[in-house]
## 1
Amino acid sequence: MTTRDVSLLIALALIGLGVTVCAAWWLRFPLLIQVAPGNAPMQFNTALLFLLAGAGLMASRFEAERVMRVLAAVVGLFALLTLVQYLAEVDFGLDQLFVRAYLLDQTSHPGRMAPNSAAAFILSALGLFLLAYPRRRVVAAALGTMVIAMGMASLLGYMLDIKAAYGWGQLTRMAIHAAVGFLLLGGGLLLAYRERRQLAFEPFTLLPWRGLMAALFLSILSLLFWQALRSEDAAQQRQQLQQKATTEASVLASLARERLQTIDRMCRRFSEGIYGSMQDGQADVRWFLEMMTSFDYVAVHGPEGKQLVAQARPGLDIGVLAAAAPPLMQEPGCKIDGKDVNIWFSCARADAGGRLWQINARAHLEIVALNEIERQSLEGYEVSLHATLQEPDKVGTDLVAYDRIPDPLPPFWVQVRALGPDPISRQSRLPDVLLVTGLILALLLAVVSTQQHRLRLANQEIRKANEELAARSDALAASNESLEQFAYAASHDLKAPVRTMVSFAQIIGKQDKKASIESVSELLDEIVSAGKGLYGMIDTLMEVSRAGRIDPASIRRVSMHTVLDRVLKRLDALIRERDAQIEIGELPELETEPHLMAQVLQNLIVNAIKYQPGEKPYVGVFARKEAKGWVFSVADRGRGIDPKYHEEIFRLFRRGNPSDVEGSGVGLATTRRIINGLGGRIWVESTLGAGATFRFFHASKPILINV
């Protein structure tokens, strides 16, 4: 299965996921929306954006750039507006635009996609958009890697039961199949980048993009899990503080109740006349203030509101305290009143005559609270008790938890404040250790992959040099063979016309002076004819010699269809004369010498037409891709070539067929020298009576070898 096939499957899977969940919302099929009861549901808008993103990947697969950009813009804009709704605490009416939400598990806003889902869609949309721009595609790959990391973090959060990994704060959480969808979407972006990466144009080809993307993935995943673990730790710590605050509230309520009961008993003793004298009552009040360190003022009022006893701790103004005391009660009872931590306890009791006796006492219960905190070893925090009829202001970073003292007492509030550093600084070090470890591993991965990539490039350079060396060795062998052919031509083929000229000259010299002028003229004509033939053979040898020498400046990228069209126009008369059928397959663009390639194709096509007897000869021109270049084929349906002549026909002045077809025997030799000069090779596949196919290999980037 190829990369393009996998990319297509991912696009179809995303489209299928989006269609399935959208249909499940319309058909009210919860199992496909939230996987399991209680899990976060995939919101309708999330499924819709998965559908559009999958369609964008499909458009990328078929190179529909405009459609891809439009879909990416729609996905990104919708996700951005959703994120703005969270940040600005507004509602644009997008959440339930298409369907009314009826599954609200782990959902802060009905129908609104999770904020981390919106962020992942924004990254995905930007990646899709950048795929259309070659010099920005590596950024698209990086964005796809970040999307994969976000999906993986959420998926691991579900597996490890870390809610902060798949949800931010108390906001809507990402569904488990949405996490899988983001894994697919990010992977699709990476595959699309790989498909579109053009090595000749991409400016980042010298970088180990796979290793760097893996390092980026590990870094983002480490950061996301660090944030999730810190959030979970903070939540657990706040829960513990809440529990401690609740416990403290109960303890302080009991202490307040005990003090109220103590004041009540003292008031009963005064009203029932238990004290033998007022001096005994005053002594009891002094003893009370000494023993109950939280009280700083006690005042006893007798019948008709007369103040009988008023005592305070040293340093306090009794007059000020008396003025701040609650008013006298009109009937028996007890109450607590006050603000902050200065709490007033009031108890009124009637004597035998129905007259009211009342005690007002002020306590500073924060002292008791701090003692209790120290007893529970909650270092770094203070707990203060507020006796007030209104809830204290909750605004402030240090307000961690508070609770209400239960009835029958008035609404007390326990406030837990951090002393010194933020409570977060006292959390577990494990998230920090994991973050540092992940970042170090990512750095090591990036360094190792970079070094491996450099070694790989060095090996490629060495392999390329070896290939060039091998090609030059082959070219040297071909050059030596050409030299042998030239030597053979000089020693054999060129001798024939010279021998003819010498023989006829000798005949003229030996003839009698009375020989007819006509006979001498005929011999001279033969000598001239042989000389012209010799001259032509020398020109041919020079032409073949020049064919193997290629100027590097003439190499340029051309379409082989264009080159072939030029050749067919030159051969139009021959094609029409023979009524030849020319079949042309898909031909590539190549870096080559266009004029010499035209000469190669022309020689092969002319031979294919000439060596097919009868009418309507067939010629097929095709090409197929190979690892390092292209193999071109020129096929005919002629008489074929005996295998024993497969090498012979590429030699100078050699022909593997009967001489009933005109030819000099240099066309294939010239063709071989051109192909060898471009660093390629040429061969023939044929048997007698079955036609012939001439094939030649041309590298994607030719290695010029002058032969």
## 2
Amino acid sequence: MRSAIAWMAENHVAANLLMIFIIVTGIISVVNVKQEVFPELPLDFVTVEVQYRGASPADIEETICIKIEEAVSGIEGVERVTSVAFEGVGVVTIQTEFGADIKEVRDKIKAEVDRITTFPRDAERPVIKEGLVRVEVIQLGIYGDTDERTLKIVSDEIREDLLKFEGITQVDVKGVKNYEFSIEVSEDKLRELGLTISEISNSLKAGSIDMPGGKLNTESGEILLRTSNLAKTADAYRDIVLRSTFDGTTLKIGDVATVTDGFEQSDLVTFFNSKPAALIKVFRVGDQKATEVAETVKKYIAEKEQALPAGISVAPWDDRTVILKERIQLLIKNAIMGFILVLIALALFLDVRLAFWVAAGIVISFLGAFSIMIYTGTSINVISLFAFILVLGIVVDDAIVVGENVFSERESGTPPLEASKKGSIRVAVPVVFAVLTTVAAFGPLLFLEGAIGRVMSNVPVVVIAVILFSLIESLFILPAHLASVKSTTPGACVSFLCRLSKYSAKMLEKFVKNKFAPFLTKAVSNRYITISLNIFVFFFSIGLITSGIIGFDFFPTVESDNMIALIEMPPGTSIEQTEKVVKRAEEASLKLYEEYVEKYPEFKGILFKNTFTIIGAQPANEGGPGGRAALFDDPSIAQISIELVSSEKRDFSTTEMVNRWRELTGPVPEARSATFQANLFTAGNPIEVEIASDDN
């Protein structure tokens, strides 16, 4: 290694080429590296969903969930099986073992579930799905004083428009009912005409059809045949023939039934800023960048707003990229501040030009780390950005040690090139071991298993990559740059910076000789006292943690600018009863607003940016293992969300506000659960108690 350091110090071109290569690959990587708000979690679960409309949770458990559990529990690669029975649907979640092939396990589960022949006759076919990672980026609220059909048309149109943009492939519409043709026949009419429901049903199937009819071979080629007579309007359904006689008389659906072109019967009510609304959720998948997706959506709605029907508005909602942008800005700000502070500190005691090249190591090391990130599949997210901020304080340590040694050699009269070689080689071994100890400290985080391992691996990848590039820069690039810095000739120090640097260095040397050196001598001479003091500080530090003075949090929650209340009533609760509880929580939120506006008058009119209420679904709870199935609407559940002014503009936390909201709402004894939360994502509850029994 000595010869390599010396050779690089002598060959400036090689050192500069290495530096340019790191910078260029780093810039290319920054442009292409994946961006997401939070690291993608591994796909380690499979869900089996079975609809059985009208069945109670007890029936679902007995006739569906238990049978699926028994069928899949013995499959190789399955670690844990949990099931939840809701009204009308059962969801079984199969957690796979760490490292198991998810597709292979899914195929085995499908084979076992398909063998079950004792499901209720009216139950739908099982839907088997791998855990799907769709990272929500931004939501849109479409709202106004208008009818349900207009909201549905506008929201579907916006969804189709968004899907046309390159880089947006997943858009869902929530909070609106699905279209449905309703055909109602009275019992008296059936008796009068001698008809049956089965006869009408068969006529509908035969009269509304769209299916391939094979192919016809001709001399000029093949002709594909297709029957295309699918009824798409109420009039088309009315014209379907039920019976016909020899004299040409026909009996049509419209003659015996009332056909309505409307929406499915559903207990689903949605409000955005107190007006009827629909919700659009935009996701990021694969290598799509969260910030680009959000910007595309915002530009689109700025243009679309002008073309919306009168009385309808669209507003961005729950933009998850805000926190990502804030972290990026914080990193850039800290990096600039770190560069300037290092430059000033080194310029005060060393040469200004030497200080510049040492500080430049921050940029080179960070860019080098980005090229490693793209190779390992690590994305720019709130965790990896935290790691960059963490390592910012130690990234230039190696360069400072090397630069100071080179400076000392030059002060003793050694020529620049020789000083650069000698100074770098002298500290090469301790610098390498200093880096290796840091690698050893962060390395074990790479081997954590499961979801938490996937999240925490972002930290060691970034930290190790940055300090390794810092080592390369300080031993193979910095010496060549320092060798090219000319020595200041005696009497040539006339500039203010040069004189300030000389004065600062002189004062530091005086402090070392008169203060630090005598103190160090006493500490070494009285080694037992020194060791005892260090042991005392060590145990005192442990005492601060164990006593709770310094708190401990395994994985701190990331606070959001949204307050969310999730209401779950007992199964079978009517929408009117659920609405009463929702109104109570909404009234409490208004009291909360008044309290905070009274305390902080500057936030009047802007504290609550948007409010969103939905009865019949919980968009915040959909997806993930064990999540409530979104197969159809449930009047016993509801969600209230309130978007606050950005945390950058207020001194009080969202957690503080959501806790006060819970207090103002008071106890909700009629609900199964009322959960108030203010976190963007969390590692889970601090404590969970699971009670299992064969007897409910």
